[in-house]
């Protein structure tokens, strides 16, 4: 049998097939719809295609959740798809998850710094990830949407090296959702309260300073 890496397919096609199999193997589904999880990477790729990405970026978009969610290792990604793709995937993989433990606010702040030092290409993919994940969160889970929108806005503050067009789309979607929550609750106090909680643990100014120092 021809090794997967040597099969006569493009890099992006191999990444699509591999990601589909990896997410299916652990029976991963989308949280609210129950759809096969691969619909999310597919949506991320579709958004990314708007900016004429490199094949390595497209492959990383397909693979961006495989290490975090399926048990695939970065070593295997490197072996099958090359160093550049693995580098992007590493930048898109959360360093703190529910599996590693700890409160959500601590996990998200740790991942915020990780995203802040990602390269422009990885930040562009991350913007696509945010756009897709935030599309219907308010409809499916209005309570969870509140901290998620605060986390999204904090992420947007550090993803400024990503594609400007994608950044604008993500920002508009974030603002739309925040305003919708304001209207539903009848006040804006929820946002300030949650924002201050995240800032108390890790101020954005500290994240940006660390990112600049590591650049």
Please supply descriptive tags for the structure shown above.
215 residues; mainly alpha; Hypothetical protein af1432; 2 domains; globular
What does this structure look like?
This protein is mainly alpha-helical and 215 residues long. The protein folds into 2 domains: 1-93, Orthogonal Bundle (Hypothetical protein af1432); 103-215, no CATH class. The chain contains 13 helices and no strands. It has helices at residues 11-25, 39-48, 55-63, 66-70, 74-81, 83-92, 104-116, 120-134, 137-140, 142-158, 164-185, 189-201, 204-214. α6 packs across α8. The longest helix is centred in the last third of the chain and has 22 residues, at 164-185. The radius of gyration is 18 Å and the shape is globular. The N and C termini lie far apart (44 Å). 33% of the residues are buried.
Question: How are the elements arranged and paired?
Answer:
Blueprint (H helix, E strand, L loop, with lengths): L10 H15 L13 H10 L6 H9 L2 H5 L3 H8 L1 H10 L11 H13 L3 H15 L2 H4 L1 H17 L5 H22 L3 H13 L2 H11 L1
GO molecular function: GTP diphosphokinase activity; guanosine-3',5'-bis(diphosphate) 3'-diphosphatase activity; kinase activity
Keywords: Hydrolase, Kinase, Transferase
EC number: 2.7.6.5, 3.1.7.2
List segments where confidence is low: pLDDT < 50 over at least 5 consecutive residues. Answer: none
Q: What is the first-to-last residue Cα distance? A: 44 Å
Q: Radius of gyration, Cα only, in angstroms?
A: 18 Å
- Structural class of the secondary structure composition? mainly alpha
Number of beta-strand segments? 0
Q: How many domains, in number, for the residues?
A: 2
Main beta-sheet annotation: none
Total helix count? Answer: 13
- Give the topology string: H per helix, E per strand: HHHHHHHHHHHHH
Shape: globular
């Amino acid at each position: 049998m021809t090794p997967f890496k040597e099969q006569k397919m493009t890099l992006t096609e191999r990444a699509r097939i591999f990601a589909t199999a990896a997410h299916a193997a652990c029976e991963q589904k989308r949280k609210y719809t129950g759809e096969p999880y691969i619909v999310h990477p597919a949506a991320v790729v579709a958004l990314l295609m708007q900016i004429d990405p490199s094949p390595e970026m497209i492959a990383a978009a397909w693979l961006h959740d495989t290490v975090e969610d399926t048990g695939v290792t970065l070593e295997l990604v490197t072996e099958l798809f090359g160093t550049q793709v693995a580098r992007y995937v590493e930048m898109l993989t959360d360093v703190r998850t529910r599996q590693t433990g700890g409160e959500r606010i601590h996990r998200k702040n740790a991942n915020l710094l990780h995203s802040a030092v990602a390269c422009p290409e990885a930040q562009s993919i991350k913007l696509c990830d945010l756009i897709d994940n935030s599309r219907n969160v308010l409809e499916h889970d209005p309570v969870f949407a509140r901290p998620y929108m605060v986390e999204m806005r904090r992420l947007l503050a550090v993803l400024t090296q990503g594609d400007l067009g994608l950044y604008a789309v993500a920002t508009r979607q974030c603002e739309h959702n925040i305003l919708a929550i304001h209207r539903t609750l009848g006040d804006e106090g929820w946002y300030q309260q949650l924002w201050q909680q995240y800032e108390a643990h890790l101020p954005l100014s500290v994240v940006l300073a660390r990112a600049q120092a590591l650049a």
